Structures are given as structure tokens and as C-alpha cells.
Backbone:
């Protein structure tokens, strides 16, 4: 597999990067490149220009803010995030399970948050896709997973995405109109093609996790092998337990099921007010798993992933006891 | 055996240091001046008529030097003489997605990609056939080859009388099993480099396991005398049977070099490797076995249905292999085998490690455990009561010689503490056992001839340097090191003293290739004979020179002469010169041809071998009963190697067999959506990683085969066989579910558990096989000695 021809630019500031993005239609950002490069080789995308962030100073590192929150630069390596004791447990453990050690040594947090959605019909070589028939997400007009549907159901496959939603995190963005912050829950849209809630000309500069001293957080990932594989179900949980041992607030967010992380509010509400005991966990897991309707478009198919949802939610919550 | 110095000593391969430090030049590393890059256009259709191929836009591209289509290579070929059904580039029709349709040679890889994308192929799509059931039912015929419809080959053989065997049985079980197909996934993608000179000679370097058969194919397809074609097998980065056919890219590279007058290199993409395939056949199996009250087998009726993919490849042999070795481990007094191989519109299946025998081995060993449970026996006892005897004949006329199956069973059971653990481990943990046997080389060559299967030549230089010439092809299994070990032992030298020239049709005498675990046994015997000829001449010369009687002269430690008087010895180099003075050129040759072992029936050529290796595996698992995930805690593997020429290499093969077996048992599948490969990449094809690989305890059992070189037998393929059913049996012990289908993925385990909760029997897998007429039954009397 060969890369298509493309122009390559190395800005030295975020502002320059934003400007280059604006004046080069069809340009793409590259951070670690572990998602972008394979996608380009497979001709899922063929950007005219690739704009590298790696040459910009000050975009990496993990910093504890004055209020006790944590700001993580977009270029922070997953390896460093995984090794950090400053960040909530769920974030570090999710990072530690991404890809393989080699990938974590080059892949970045920003790249992971913006990871393209995945599907067995799209993450294939061009010749494979021509044999299959092109699909909605790249140059075609059919979805081969849900042929009657009009929407792309490619799966949000970032391990960090559901965790950031569960942590009520925010991303810092810089675009042509200046900078802003966006709640992680608004960064994701339930559309396999246009899956990010930021505009294409905005660059993610950082991830900010609010201070939550009383919260316990965790992440459970389903995949075939102990390394390399993308999640085919991710469960991020965060629970605030009051002094009386009862749940004051909760987040249950599922990844790798739909084009966006899914926040299971009904299950969260069911947890509130009860102790984190087996019964409450079982009820929450049942409620959270109910709406799970995976498609058969990633490894191990839909039925098994549906079966596994309550198991993994239960385990993730049990981890917090 | 006593007195061996090199034989039996563990040590790294002679090429190990170069391999692990990146110095080895694989075919894909070859770079020649003026070299062009070649590429293949893959069919986008599973089954279609080719109406036209327009190459003009590709030819017009600057940088493109040649474009070929099927019309340029019209001669059909195929590895077996009975299946000459392939073309280097599709002619008239395509039969699977990925089949090569056209080829390009250009100045660089980008130009190749661009040129390939400009070739316009007009197809008329035809209905495509995806499964065994569809192939047997479909009116669409995808092939002019074979026995009709989509049937490539059928077989129906009965040895003894199964009817009376079943009548006499106390228990008769009928079970259905399915073995999903998988592929070799060698690390090295196939690669070939060709060059053509103005002298009308063509040279091809290729990552092939079979330079001799490739040579014959090129002779046929290029319509050139064999003497003008030189095939060199470059060091092979893993084969496992995946580089045992002649391939499109090899023929195309040669043709492109001839057309352009420049060297041409083609490296298959990983996707193209999945499409080239020739891997494990998916096999649907029905097994009916009768047992007496003590668990002794009274009769077995075995049916297999093979999904062959689009072409013949080794399929005619693969079909028979699914029926031939059931009898090699257990005494089956009456045995009937019926099988059919169908064509489907998918990449062709062929031989993968164990060729056609892991599938029936899986079925047989699972069913033995199921029968044991019915009879109130444990897995060890039922096997022990059925073991074949050393030096015996099987009902289907296999000649068994040395046989260490009982010792393998004893030692694997003891090392693993199997009997204490089986049935007694806590919920979720389990232990399973299975046996297997494999050929030490197929008894017959692929094309009928009376010539030796292996020849080796040795040339000794005046400085004492010894060069060994053999076409045996090191595909990572260490065959070059094994030959060096044998020659070094005979000549009293060290393996590292020898220059090994291998796998080059201009330089080396024929060896049929690295398949059917034949090289140690066959080339090893030829090497031993060649070395002994050299040794005898050197001994005679030294005896003469030193005035000793020849029978007291020994070769050892680089010296030749009296065993007990250091003064009456010569250095190896002086001894060699003495021999050259007396007899001229010091060269020797040896050859090996297997004894005539064929039985009195058509099809008996498949399964015969001069010796069989035996293995017993015990696998312990730790299952997650909620997720169905199976973690392998440990594997114990006992293997009857005959004699370990180099125990380190033997253990390497055993551990590799465990790795591959567990991969097949748990993860790997050549999976399709109808006819389209689900994910021809190493991300989607789930090879186990380091994290999935358990500790392995290898137990070497030595039985000194009377015909093997220094008593040695094979270890390349056999150890894989029992691993897969042992794993399946362990999962059953752990969770009570019988996943009668490979791979045993977590979704199947959970489905089987859910079945139990709903009152079912906890079996996952197909329950029936098609009602099919396998054709006229050949009845064969058991051998006289049976
Ligand atoms: C074999 C393999 C296994 C993998 N396994 C996993 C896994 O288990 N879990 C998982 O989550 N991922 C996995 N990945 C995907 C990928 O490696 C990670 O998601 C990684 O974090 C992506 O980061 P990157 O820096 O390499 O992104 P890049 O490839 O550089 O970028 C990814 C996307 O984000 C955009 N982007 C990058 N940075 C920014 C930014 N600052 N602002 C705006 N847009 C940006 C890019 O334009 C691109 O579209 C795997 C990849 C491979 C090849």
C-alpha cells in the first residue's frame, strides 16, 4: 500500500496551523498519524495537504490546574497519559489499553479524541472497497451494514472518548474565529461521517478534566486480544459517592457501539441514591445495556456485543466499589 | 545411539545470527541494477466473465515498461498434475475476488499503482457460490474442472466392514464438527525477483518452499527448456504450506523480465497474501464411531466436506488427507471414509501445516472425549485402550514403524498432572488432552516418477572446506542446519565448518521441497549417504597414509585417524588432500527414495510415509464464564521425534506448533461475507500476540526410527495437530460446553452456555451435513498382517 501524493506543512504555532488549514481546502491535521496514515493508505481520505502539529511548542504535557483539574495538551503521547498519576484513573487505564506499546509511543491524545469512526466496510483497502461496492462514508451511496438506512453507522472507536464524556471533560479549540471550549459530550455526533461536533477548521489544543476529588472512575474494554485491537465495546464509569455511602451522581458512557459515545442517563439516575451494591449495579447494568443495539460492523458481531454490554457495565461499576 | 557428537546437541541454527540481526537477504530485499517493480491487478468480482481488458491508459503512463494480461500467459498450470486449472493471469473468467487479472512493470511502485488503477476490465458478473451447501446445490458451475457441477473430487473407501463393526458396538456416536478455514499468515509476504539475460536464460528468486516444482511450472508456462530456467529459493520468512504452490506473481515476474529485458520484482501486499491463500480448508465433518463397553473402537465412518475455494491446488490430496490418518493413532478395525471437495468463489485452499489432517483430528479427538464420558471412562483410558502398536499395519494399509504414542501419552499426562485435574478443577478452569500423528514425508512425489525424492552432493575443497549442495529449502524450520548437523556428524566436523548451498536449480541436485515434513527424513538420509561416501574415502586414504587398518580409523573433532593414538591422526585438511591424491576429485552424492508403501487401492498414495511422528498435547485453560474468553494457562506437549538431531530446533518447532495451533483453535479464521474476505489484513485476522501465548513444556520422546537419519523423524507439523482438540476438550472440561467448531471464539462459548441455561445440550456448531452421494464405494480388504 502506498500513500497518495500530498503536500506537507509544518507550522510552528497553533494560529499558523489554523490559518494553513483555512487556506488549504481539503487539508488534514496530522498528530501521531497512527489513524490518519493508514486511512490515507487505504484511500479512505486523500487530503491534498497534511498539516503537522508536531512542530508546535507547548501543546503537550499534563498539568494540574489551580482548581485541581487537569489540562492535557493535545499532543501528549498516550504513553505519557497512561503513565500519569495526575489524571483520573479511568483516563490513564483507558490510555494504557489503546493499540500497542509502539502505537502509544507515537499516538496523541488529540488524535485519539478526533479518531475517525470505524467500520468493517470502510477500514479496508481501496481495491477491497471497490469489490464490495463503495459505501456512504467514502464515495458511495449505500450503507452495507444497514442497507436501508440513510445514515452511516461507523463506530466511535476511541477509548478515550467515552471516558472524557464520563468525566464531564472539555476540549480547548482554536479556529479562525479564535478559541473556545466545548464539552466532550458535544464533541461527538451520532453520525458516522460527520462525527465531530467541532468544525473542520478547528484544532483541538487540550483536554481539560474538571476537579472531582470525590469521584471514582474506571474503564473496561472489550476486544479480542490483549493488545493492538480497537475496542468493540468500551464502558467508562464515574461515580460520586457521598459520606453516607450512597451514590450522589453517576456517569455511565458506552463507547464502540454507535457513531458517538452513548451516555446512559436512565441507568445513571437509577444508581443515584443507592449504595454501590450488587443489586444496584445489576439494575443499572440492565438499564444501561437495554438500548444497546450494535451493528455487525466490527469484530465479533452484534449479538455478542449486546450480550457483553451488561457484563462489562457490571464489572466497570464493581471496580469502583 | 551412542557416540554422537553433533547429533543430539542443542544449538542455534547456522543462519540464526544473520536472521535476527537483519542481515539475511529475503526475496523482497533483493535489489538489482535497473530493476523494475511489478504489480498485479486484483479481480473485483467473485465470479464473472471477462469481456475485455483495456490496458491502453496504463501503457500510456510514463514509467510503465510492460503490461500483461491473461492472453500473454495462456498455458494453464497447477501444483498437481491432475489439477492444471490455474492461469497466471485470469483467462476468460475470474473465480474469486483478488484473482490476478493483469500485471504491470514500471520504474517505481507509485507508477505501478497508478498504472494498475488505469486498467479497465469489463466484467459480466455471474452468480457466485460461497459455501459447501451452496456449491452442492447450485446450478451455477464455476469450473470446467472437476467431476461435475461444483464438485472437484469425491472419494469413497471402505476398509473392513463397518456395518458389522457398528453391529458389534456397545455405543455408537454420530457427531458433526466444523473446522473453519484459516491461513498461514507468514511474516514474510510472498516476493519474487526475475531477471532475463540476452543468453536466453531466466533466473527467478522467490520466497518459495518448492523450487523444483516451481521450476517445472515455469518450464511449462513459459514454454522454455528447464535448462534455461534457474530458480533460487531465497531465504523464506515463514511458509507453513503457503508457499508450496507455484504462484501468479512468480510466473508474471519471469515473464515481465523477459518482455522488458530488465529485472522485475513483485512483492505481494498483505491483502494479496490473504487472497493467494492456499490455507486450511474449511471442512464439515460427520463422524460415526462404534465402541465396545471398554471403549475400544469397533468401526468408524467418517464423512468430510471440503470447501476448496476456486481452484484445485493440492485439493485432490487434501481431500484424501482428511480421511487417511484417523487410523494412524488408534486401531480402527473397520473404517469407511467418504469425502467431497467443492469449488467455491473464494481464494483457493491448499496445504497448511498438517495438510488436511488437523480438521479430522479435531473431530476425532473431540468425539473420543465425548464417547469416554458416555462410557464412564476418562480421556486417558479411552485413548490408551485404542493406541496403535509400533511396527504394525493399519486397516487402510499404512505401515507404522517406530511409534512413541504411548510414551507421549504417559509423559504428557504425568507432567501435567492431567488425571488429578481433569474433572476436578474449579468452575471455569479445565484441562484437555488429545493425540496426533503426522508423516515424515509423503511417500510419493507430487508428479509420478521413479527418481529419488532427495539428492545431496558434497564437494570437498583442497583446503578441507566442505560444501553441501541440496535443493532442500529452509523456510525457517531449520532444514539447512539439520543437513549441516548430519553431514558434520558423519565427517567429524562442526555444522559451522560447512558451506551450505541450497535451493538453487542450477547448482543443487533435486529435493522435492519443504512440504509434508519430508526434509529431515529424506534429504537427511541423502545427506548422510553422501557424507558417508566422503568419509569412507577419507578414511581409506588416511589408513593408507598412516599404515593403519581402515576399520580403526575414525573421524572426530576435525581429525582423522586412530581413535586412541593422537600421533596416528591427520588434520581433516591433510586427510582430504590424501584422499584427493589417491582418488582425484573428492565429491560425493547420496539420494533417498521412500520404500514402496502404497496399498492396493486408488488413493493409497496419500497418507503413506516412511515413518510417522506422534504427539500428545495437554492444554489447561482458564475461562471467563461470563465473557466466554478462553485464556490458555499452560500447554504440555510430548512429541515422538525419533531422535532429536538438535533438541533446540525441535523445541522451536514444537512451540511454533503450539502457537499456530492455539491461534487456529481460538482466534484465526479466513472469514468471508458471502464471497468477500471480511478483512484481509493483520489487524482483522486475529493472530495471537505474545500476551496470548502460554508457557509451553516440551517433552521430547525418542524412539530411534530404523529408517530415519540417526533415527530422526519429523517435528514441523505433527505437534500442531493435538493442540486444537486438546484446547476444545479443555474448554469442555472448564465450562461443560462442546464447541464443535473451530475457532472457538468467545461468542460461540457464550452461545453454548446460554443454550445450557435454556435446557439445551451446550453444543455449538452444525448439527447435520448435506445428504450427498459420494459415488462408487471402493472396498478394500485390510492388510494380511492386520
Ligand atoms: C493497529 C492499531 C491499533 C489501534 N488501536 C486503538 C485502540 O485500541 N483504541 C483507540 O482508541 N485507538 C486505536 N488506534 C487508533 C489510533 O492509534 C489512536 O486513536 C491514536 O490515539 C490516534 O492519535 P494520533 O495522534 O496518531 O492521530 P492522527 O492519526 O494524527 O490523527 C487522527 C485524526 O485526528 C485528527 N487530529 C489529530 N490531532 C488533532 C488535533 N489536535 N486537532 C484536531 N484534529 C486532530 C487528524 O486530522 C485525524 O483525522 C489504533 C491504531 C492502529 C494502527
Residues:
Amino acid at each position: 500500500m502506498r500513500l497518495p501524493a500530498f503536500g506537507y506543512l509544518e507550522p510552528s504555532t497553533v494560529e499558523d496551523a489554523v490559518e494553513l488549514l483555512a487556506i488549504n481546502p481539503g487539508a488534514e491535521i496530522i498528530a501521531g498519524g497512527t489513524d490518519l496514515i493508514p486511512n490515507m493508505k487505504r484511500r479512505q481520505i486523500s487530503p491534498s495537504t497534511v498539516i503537522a502539529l508536531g512542530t508546535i511548542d507547548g501543546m503537550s504535557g499534563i498539568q494540574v490546574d489551580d482548581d485541581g483539574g487537569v489540562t492535557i495538551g493535545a499532543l501528549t503521547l498516550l504513553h505519557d497519559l497512561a503513565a500519569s498519576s495526575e489524571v483520573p484513573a479511568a483516563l490513564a487505564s483507558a490510555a494504557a489499553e489503546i493499540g500497542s506499546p509502539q502505537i502509544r509511543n507515537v499516538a496523541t491524545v488529540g488524535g485519539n479524541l478526533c479518531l475517525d469512526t470505524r467500520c468493517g466496510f470502510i477500514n479496508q483497502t481501496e481495491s477491497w472497497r471497490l469489490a464490495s461496492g463503495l459505501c456512504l462514508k467514502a464515495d458511495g451511496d449505500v450503507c452495507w451494514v444497514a442497507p436501508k438506512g440513510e445514515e452511516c453507522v461507523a463506530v466511535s472507536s476511541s477509548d478515550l472518548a467515552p471516558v472524557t464524556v464520563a468525566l464531564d471533560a472539555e476540549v480547548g479549540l482554536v479556529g479562525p474565529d479564535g478559541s473556545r471550549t466545548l464539552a466532550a459530550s458535544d464533541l461527538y455526533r451520532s453520525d458516522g461521517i460527520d462525527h465531530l461536533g467541532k468544525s473542520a477548521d478547528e484544532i483541538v489544543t487540550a483536554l481539560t478534566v474538571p476537579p472531582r476529588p470525590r469521584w471514582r472512575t474506571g474503564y473496561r474494554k472489550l476486544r479480542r486480544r490483549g493488545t493492538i485491537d480497537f475496542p468493540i465495546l468500551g464502558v467508562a464509569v464515574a461515580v460520586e459517592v457521598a459520606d453516607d455511602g450512597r451514590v450522589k451522581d453517576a456517569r455511565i458512557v458506552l463507547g464502540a457501539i454507535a457513531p458517538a459515545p452513548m451516555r446512559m442517563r436512565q441507568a445513571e439516575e437509577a444508581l443515584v441514591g443507592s449504595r454501590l451494591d450488587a443489586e444496584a449495579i445489576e439494575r443499572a447494568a440492565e438499564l444501561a445495556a437495554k438500548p444497546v443495539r450494535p451493528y455487525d460492523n466490527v469484530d465479533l458481531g452484534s449479538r455478542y456485543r449486546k450480550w457483553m454490554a451488561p457484563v462489562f457495565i457490571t464489572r466497570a461499576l464493581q471496580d469502583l466499589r | 545411539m551412542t557416540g554422537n557428537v553433533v547429533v543430539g546437541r542443542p544449538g542455534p541454527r547456522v543462519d540464526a545470527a544473520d536472521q535476527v540481526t537483519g542481515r539475511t537477504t529475503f526475496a523482497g530485499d533483493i535489489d538489482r541494477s535497473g530493476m523494475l517493480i511489478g504489480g498485479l491487478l486484483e479481480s473485483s468480482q467473485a465470479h464473472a466473465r471477462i469481456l475485455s481488458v483495456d490496458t491502453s491508459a496504463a501503457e500510456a503512463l510514463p514509467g510503465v515498461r510492460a503490461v500483461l494480461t491473461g492472453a500473454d500467459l495462456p498455458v494453464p498450470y497447477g501444483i498437481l498434475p491432475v489439477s492444471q486449472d490455474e492461469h497466471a493471469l485470469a483467462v476468460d473468467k475470474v473465480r474469486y475476488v483478488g484473482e490476478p487479472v493483469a500485471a504491470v512493470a514500471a520504474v517505481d511502485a507509485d507508477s505501478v499503482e497508478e498504472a494498475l488503477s488505469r486498467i479497465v476490465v469489463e466484467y459480466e458478473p455471474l452468480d457466485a457460490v460461497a459455501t459447501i451447501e451452496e456449491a452442492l446445490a447450485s446450478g451455477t458451475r464455476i469450473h470446467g474442472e472437476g467431476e461435475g457441477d461444483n464438485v472437484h473430487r469425491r472419494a469413497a473407501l471402505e476398509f473392513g466392514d463397518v456395518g458389522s463393526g457398528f453391529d458389534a458396538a456397545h455405543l455408537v456416536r454420530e457427531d458433526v464438527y466444523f473446522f473453519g478455514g484459516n491461513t498461514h499468515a507468514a511474516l514474510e509476504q510472498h516476493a519474487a525477483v526475475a531477471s532475463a539475460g540476452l543468453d536466453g536464460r531466466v533466473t527467478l528468486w522467490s520466497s518459495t518452499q518448492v523450487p523444483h516444482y516451481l521450476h517445472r511450472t515455469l518450464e511449462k508456462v513459459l514454454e522454455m527448456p528447464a535448462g534455461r530456467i534457474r530458480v533460487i529459493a531465497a531465504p523464506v520468512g515463514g511458509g507453513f504450506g503457503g508457499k508450496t504452490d507455484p504462484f501468479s506473481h512468480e510466473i508474471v515476474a519471469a515473464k515481465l523480465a523477459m518482455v522488458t529485458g530488465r529485472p522485475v520484482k513483485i512483492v505481494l501486499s498483505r491483502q494479496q497474501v490473504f487472497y493467494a491463500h492456499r490455507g486450511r480448508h474449511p471442512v464439515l465433518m460427520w463422524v460415526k464411531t462404534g465402541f465396545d463397553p471398554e471403549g475400544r473402537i469397533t468401526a468408524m465412518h467418517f464423512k468430510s466436506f471440503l470447501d476448496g475455494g476456486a481452484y484445485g491446488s493440492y485439493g485432490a490430496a487434501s481431500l484424501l488427507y482428511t480421511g487417511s490418518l484417523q487410523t494412524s493413532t488408534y486401531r480402527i478395525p473397520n473404517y469407511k471414509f467418504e469425502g467431497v471437495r467443492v469449488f467455491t468463489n473464494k481464494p483457493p485452499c491448499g496445504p497448511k501445516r498438517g495438510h488436511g489432517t488437523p480438521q479430522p483430528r479435531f473431530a476425532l479427538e473431540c468425539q473420543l472425549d465425548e464417547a469416554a464420558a458416555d462410557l464412564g471412562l476418562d480421556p486417558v483410558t479411552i485413548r490408551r485402550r485404542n493406541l496403535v502398536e509400533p511396527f504394525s499395519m493399519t486397516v487402510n494399509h499404512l505401515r507404522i514403524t517406530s511409534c512413541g504414542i504411548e510414551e507421549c501419552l504417559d509423559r504428557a499426562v504425568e507432567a501435567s498432572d492431567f488425571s488429578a485435574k481433569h474433572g476436578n478443577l474449579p468452575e471455569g478452569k479445565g484441562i484437555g488432552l488429545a493425540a496426533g500423528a503426522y508423516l515424515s514425508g509423503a511417500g510419493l512425489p507430487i508428479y509420478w516418477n521413479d527418481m529419488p525424492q532427495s539428492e545431496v552432493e558434497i564437494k570437498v575443497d583442497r583446503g578441507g572446506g566442505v560444501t553441501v549442495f541440496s535443493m532442500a529449502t529452509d523456510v525457517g524450520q531449520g532444514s539447512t542446519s539439520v543437513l549441516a548437523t548430519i553431514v558434520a556428524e558423519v565427517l567429524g566436523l562442526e555444522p559451522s565448518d560447512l558451506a551450505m548451498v541450497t535451493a538453487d536449480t542450477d547448482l543443487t541436485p533435486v529435493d522435492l521441497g519443504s512440504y509434508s515434513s519430508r526434509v529431515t527424513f529424506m534429504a537427511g538420509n541423502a545427506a548422510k549417504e553422501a557424507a558417508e561416501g566422503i568419509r569412507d574415502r577419507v578414511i581409506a586414504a588416511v589408513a593408507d597414509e598412516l599404515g593403519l587398518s581402515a576399520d580403526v580409523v575414525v573421524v572426530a573433532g576435525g581429525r582423522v585417524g586412530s581413535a586412541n593414538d593422537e600421533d596416528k591422526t591427520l588434520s581433516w585438511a591433510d586427510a582430504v588432500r590424501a584422499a584427493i591424491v589417491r582418488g582425484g576429485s573428492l565429491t560425493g552424492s547420496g539420494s533417498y527414495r521412500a520404500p514402496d508403501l502404497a496399498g492396493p487401492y486408488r488413493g493409497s498414495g496419500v497418507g503413506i510415509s516412511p515413518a510417522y511422528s506422534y504427539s500428545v498435547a495437554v492444554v489447561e485453560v482458564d475461562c471467563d464464564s461470563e465473557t466466554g474468553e478462553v485464556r490458555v494457562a499452560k500447554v504440555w506437549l510430548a512429541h515422538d521425534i525419533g531422535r532429536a538431531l538438535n533438541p533446540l530446533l525441535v523445541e522451536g518447532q514444537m512451540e511454533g506448533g503450539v502457537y499456530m495451533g492455539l491461534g487456529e483453535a481460538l482466534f484465526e479464521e479466513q472469514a468471508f461475507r458471502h464471497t468477500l474476505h471480511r478483512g484481509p489484513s493483520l489487524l482483522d485476522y486475529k493472530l495471537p500476540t505474545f500476551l496470548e501465548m502460554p508457557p509451553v513444556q516440551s517433552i521430547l520422546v525418542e524412539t530411534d526410527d530404523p529408517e530415519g537419519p540417526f533415527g530422526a523423524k519429523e517435528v514441523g507439523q505433527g505437534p500442531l495437530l493435538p493442540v486444537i482438540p486438546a484446547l476444545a476438550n479443555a474448554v469442555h472440561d472448564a465450562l461443560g460446553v462442546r464447541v464443535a467448531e473451530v475457532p472457538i471464539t468467545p461468542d460461540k462459548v457464550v452461545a453454548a452456555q446460554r443454550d445450557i441455561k435454556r435446557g439445551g445440550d451446550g453444543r455449538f456448531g452444525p448439527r447435520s451435513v448435506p445428504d450427498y452421494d459420494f459415488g462408487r464405494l471402493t472396498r478394500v480388504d485390510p492388510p494380511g498382517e492386520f
Remarks:
- The radius of gyration of chain A is 19 Å.
- The longest strand of chain A covers residues 233-241.
- The interface with chain B takes residues 1-2, 5, 120, 123-125, 127-128, 130-132, 222, 224-229, 299-301, 303-304, 307-308, 311 of chain A (CB under 8 Å).
